[in-house]
Each structure stands twice: as structure tokens, then as C-alpha cells.
Amino acid sequence: MGRCGLQRPRHLRTPNLDAAAAEGLRFDRFYAAAPICSPTRGSVLTGRHPNRYGVFSWGHPIRPQEVTIAEALKTAGYTTGHFGKWHLGSVRTKSAANPGASGFDEWLSAPNYYDNHPTLSHRGRARRIRGESSVVTVDAALDWIGKQAEAEQPFLAVVWFGSPHTPHLAHYDFLKPYANQSRIV
Prior knowledge:
There is one protein chain. This protein is of the alpha/beta class. It has a domain at 68-178: Alkaline Phosphatase, subunit A (3-Layer(aba) Sandwich). The protein has six helices and five strands; from the N terminus they run H-H-H-H-E-E-E-E-H-E-H. Strand 3 (119-122) and strand 4 form a beta hairpin. The longest helix has 18 residues, at 133-150. The radius of gyration is 18 Å and the shape is globular.
């Protein structure tokens, strides 16, 4: 039985999560500014409550005058990157609420939920990428992080996944271990 009273189905194989839980640091208490994504994302970036910075529900854009952690760290010499789900406004080039306008030097972002083989915005230009959505996001973030580490550049990387939002479709590579299981949950 898990800490939240739910039991993981026995057929699920999660060796990396199991190892991290057994050997690593576990965070089992946390705070979210809201029960939905956009207000919480804005709170992460601004350090403020949604009532203070004006994003009250999903899909509302962050106000251009808000100071984000990315903007603050840039004044201290950091380079900044956003990878994955943005959902705080448009990810188009001319948007006053895109990741670049919010202090991010590099961004490969989706305006909202995205799934496998996503079309993401790379600094405002649409880019179709083949692969499972979370893997695409992690690969892009790790590539960028590696470049910053090589350059010995202090950095902030914000990585937000489209999963676990529904209706997520498992990539066929991740379905293989469960080929003999029912697809109905």
C-alpha cells in the first residue's frame, strides 16, 4: 500500500522509480499554488500566489510585467532554458507571454498538453520532433544542459512534461513489456 492509500498494480514495472525511492531522497510533502496547472506554473516562475500575479485558471497568460525567476537569474549571469509544457500564454515569437518574453534564452515549448511526436515551439518556430513526449523533452533539456556545463555557464533549466495529462498515449516502445496485459484500465 502506498503512502496515499493506493496500491500499485503488480504488473507495472518501475525499476528506476523503485531504485530512486529506495536509495534517493524522497519528497513526500509538497505545495502547489492551485489544483490546476497554469496557476501553479506561474507560481513556480514568479514565487507569488495566483491571486497576486493574475493567473486564476488554466490557459490564462502570465502578465508581461511579472518578474520571473528566469529574469532574476539572468541579472546574476545565468543562462536560462524552458523545455516542455508552457501553458502560460502563446509560444509564438511575437507573444508578450512566450518563454522568451518571460526570461528564457532557450526554449522548446508547447502551448499546452502535447503527446508523442510533438510539434513544439523552438524559440517561436514550430518544430516537429519524433518520439515519446517525455523522452523528447528530456533529450532536448539534457543536450542544452550539457552545453551549459561544458561552457561552465551557470544555468536554470525548467522542464515541464505534457504527461501525466490525459489522454496520454503510451509510445509503442513502452507498451512492449505489457503486450500480454489488457489495455483497459
